[in-house]
Design brief:
Blueprint (H helix, E strand, L loop, with lengths): L7 E5 L8 H14 L4 H20 L1 E2 L7 E7 L2 E7 L3 E2 L12 H8 L2 E7 L2 E9 L5
Antiparallel strand pairs: 1-3, 2-5, 3-4, 4-7, 6-7
Length: 134
């Protein structure tokens, strides 16, 4: 199948509130359809992005901004997703069972995942190889 013809980018800076995630998911779903991303890959990208954004909302301590950054880039052979917050992630509560599986899920859905903590915040970069359905 043909790849995506040119680089297309979606950039958002949503408020770091859980109630904004459903609208973000709807917007991203529409964008992926516009890019011609096949359905299975689009669903995986949606779920991985949802989880990364939820982490950017739930986990940062000392965030300097009340929003986080989402950039989704469609290139010739895939989709790159970057989520950046402005805080450092708090350590998971060991007493809460069945939590902390989100990053394992993200890793299973995407081809490459990297997490980087900097003085500016935490950044998750994910890549998924896709074919266009066009």
């Amino acid at each position: 199948m043909e790849g995506i013809e040119s680089c297309q980018v979606l950039r958002l800076a949503p408020p770091a509130r859980l109630e904004t995630l459903p609208a973000l998911r709807t917007m991203l779903r529409s964008w992926l359809v516009e890019q011609g991303i096949e359905d299975v890959a689009a669903q995986d990208i949606l779920l991985a992005t949802w989880e990364a954004c939820a982490n950017a909302v739930e986990h940062p301590c000392g965030a300097r901004r009340s929003a986080y950054d989402l950039e989704v880039r469609a290139v010739s052979d895939g989709v790159w997703v970057t989520v950046r917050d402005s805080g450092s992630w708090r350590r998971p509560d060991e007493s809460v069972q069945f939590r902390g599986l989100g990053l394992r899920l993200v890793d299973g859905l995407m081809d490459d995942v990297s997490i980087r903590a900097t003085s500016q915040g935490t950044e998750i970069v994910m890549r998924r190889t896709v074919e266009s359905s066009r």
